[in-house]
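Inverse folding, one chain.
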């Protein structure tokens, strides 16, 4: 794992799942979920990193749902 992976795939990075309007039955259970960075590769093996704060999840063919970075450990926790 290279050091840049740590920005996305560690337990202390949290992501918010955003389903597109009219999402399918595969995406519906995840909509609004908080996902730990350490879970991303297992849950969404075909994901594509778009930028530092956005990941295209590619849960199924033609999937347009995404995850957006919401915090890292220590942020917004008064530390």
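Residues assigned per position:
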């Amino acid at each position: 794992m290279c050091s840049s992976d740590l920005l996305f795939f560690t337990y202390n990075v949290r992501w918010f799942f955003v389903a597109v309007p009219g999402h399918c039955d595969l995406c519906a259970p995840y909509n609004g979920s908080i996902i730990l960075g350490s879970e991303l590769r297992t849950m969404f093996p075909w994901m594509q990193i778009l930028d530092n704060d956005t990941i295209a999840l590619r849960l199924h063919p033609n999937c347009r749902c995404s995850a957006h970075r919401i915090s890292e450990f220590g942020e917004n926790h008064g530390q």
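Confidence is low (pLDDT under 50) at residues 75-79. Residues 2 and 67 are 21 Å apart (CA to CA).
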